[in-house]
Write a structure and sequence with these properties.
It is a single chain. The chain has 496 residues and is an alpha+beta fold. The strands form 3 sheets. It has a 5-stranded antiparallel beta sheet with strand order 1-11-12-10-9. Helices cover 53% and strands 16% of the residues. The protein contains 12 helices and 12 strands. Helix 6 runs antiparallel to helix 7 and helix 10 packs antiparallel against helix 12.
């Protein structure tokens, strides 16, 4: 089942893109946040890699300097006969965390069992054994290491010093965490600044939004104050000119409609009286004149209804339409309105109206504040519309909103149903426009409508703070649904 609601326009379209669902302020805030994150992330990355390169380079230079000093000491000691190699390596003054490895006379010596020939990368080892000093960063057992190799050709040896960078790696991890935290704080600060800046920048537009809402609600004299904001003055001036032109045009059209309608009432009264005289002497007319009189009488009544509808529309446009509210029982109100407006069929019965017992019980104790005359006009127009386009009303249903009786009701819903061909989905909003008849109306209507009935229904319902829309019944007919808010004082006494 599909439905279309009519208040002052169509139902809003719900976009699917996330950027479209977010408001302008949210998008500006997100832009600030993303920009702050990107900038802080880039600066943190640059800082980290620059510091890392600097620390490693500094540590590698210190290791190389110490390794060359120690290599010179080892070479001088090996020139002395009877030197004990292991004791020599133990006596070498190395940096904390470094270990020495010596290749001498075809054998490998080391100060720790954790290092040896296999610890030193093959490319580094081959270069040094070939007579070329070399330094290389590598990883051993998941631990970062730097090895410096110095050839000792005078004693046919090669000295290696392996230094652990665990302490430096810990320092770099701490630096990375600190930079990540700084980037997070910067991002949050960017979001906060974006929220503040967007709110401050969009605050002047809030006044324009409120003015537009007021104008859409009928307060055509609403204007915008630009204040001292130079950037907003042009926009406010253009908005005010547009509002003034719109107000002048609507008032001019309303006056024109009202003046024309009033001017037509006098000749219509004269014509109606003249037709009444002719009707009194219908038997004296020949059959051709009688048929002409019937057509004239039908068109005259249609013309009178149109003038009355135009006068009512002009009151809505001028904002002079007023409500005479009474506190009423919704079931009695609807029943009375339908009985008063339903035509009597050939069999002597009125249009069948159904009030399901369970539904009626659901609205017991509820009260509406409505203008009885206007509500009766609404029901009359809906009954007339169903008679003209769908062969009459099949039933009227009244219910509470929400239907769950365990929840306090907020509104009453009245549905007028028919068993006709229904209203096409594309026309379910437009039928409430003035003089709109749609491509389907010519096939269904009897041709005596004014094209203003449903627009007056929408105006009367809107004046009560309610809504009206069209649904499709299970049989394919049309269901006109009116929803009216409950009285704010439901416990008040209903006048007899």
């Amino acid at each position: 089942m599909t439905s279309t609601e009519v208040t002052t326009g169509t139902r809003p379209h719900h976009p699917t893109r996330l950027s479209s669902r977010l408001g302008l302020r949210a998008r500006v805030t997100a832009a600030f946040g993303v920009g702050a994150f990107a900038l802080s992330g880039m600066m943190a990355g640059i800082t980290y890699f620059t510091a890392r390169q600097s620390f490693i380079s500094e540590r590698q230079t210190a290791v190389q300097r110490q390794a060359f000093v120690n290599a010179s000491l080892v070479q001088n000691s090996l020139r002395s006969p009877g030197t004990e190699v292991n004791q020599l390596l133990e006596s070498v003054d190395t940096l904390p965390g470094s270990r020495s490895v010596l290749h001498y006379q075809g054998q490998w010596y080391a100060t720790s069992v954790s290092v040896g020939q296999s610890t030193i990368p093959a490319p580094e080892r081959n270069l040094v054994l070939g007579g070329t000093p070399a330094s290389q960063l590598f990883s051993s057992g998941g631990s970062p290491q730097v090895v410096v190799g110095v050839p000792l050709p005078a004693v046919h040896a090669a000295y290696f010093e392996v230094f652990s960078l665990d302490e430096l790696a810990g320092t770099l991890r701490t630096l990375a965490y600190a930079l990540a935290a700084a980037a997070l704080v910067t991002t949050l600060a960017g979001i906060a600044v974006g929220r503040w800046a967007s709110g401050r920048a969009l605050r002047p537009l809030g006044g324009i939004t409120e003015a537009a809402v007021s104008i859409a609600g009928g307060q055509l004299d609403t204007r915008v104050e630009a204040g001292d904001d130079a950037d907003l003055q042009d926009l406010a001036s253009a908005f005010n000119r547009m509002a003034a032109n719109l107000q002048a045009r609507i008032e001019r059209e309303a006056r024109f409609t009202s003046d024309v309608s009033h001017e037509l009432r006098s000749p219509l009264t004269t014509l109606s009286a003249s037709v009444g005289v002719l009707e009194a002497h219908r038997g004296e007319l020949d059959p051709r004149a009688q048929r002409a009189l019937t057509l004239l009488d039908g068109d005259l009544h249609r013309f009178q209804r149109m003038v009355d509808d135009l006068l009512e529309i002009s009151r809505f446009d001028a904002g002079s339409a007023e409500l005479s509210l009474d506190l009423v029982d919704p079931v009695e109100l609807v029943h009375h309105s339908v009985v008063a407006t339903s035509p009597v069929g050939d069999d002597g019965r009125r249009v069948p109206v159904a009030f399901p017992v369970a539904v009626g019980a659901g609205v017991q104790g509820l009260h509406l504040e409505v203008d009885k005359r206007r509500f009766e006009r609404v029901m009359a127009n809906l009954v007339a519309n169903a008679s003209a386009y769908a062969g009459g009303v099949s039933r009227v249903v009244i219910d509470r909103v929400p239907t769950d009786t365990t929840v306090p009701a907020s509104a009453v819903r009245v549905a007028v149903e028919d068993d006709g061909p229904g209203v096409p989905a594309v026309d379910r909003t437009r039928v409430f426009e003035r003089f709109y008849r749609g491509g389907w109306s010519g096939q269904r209507a009897t041709g005596d409508g004014t094209g203003l009935g449903l627009s007056l229904v929408a105006e009367h319902v809107r004046l009560h703070g309610g809504t009206v829309w069209i649904e499709e019944t299970p049989s394919g007919g049309a269901r006109f649904v009116i929803e009216l808010p409950l009285s704010p004082s439901p416990t008040a006494e209903v006048p007899a």
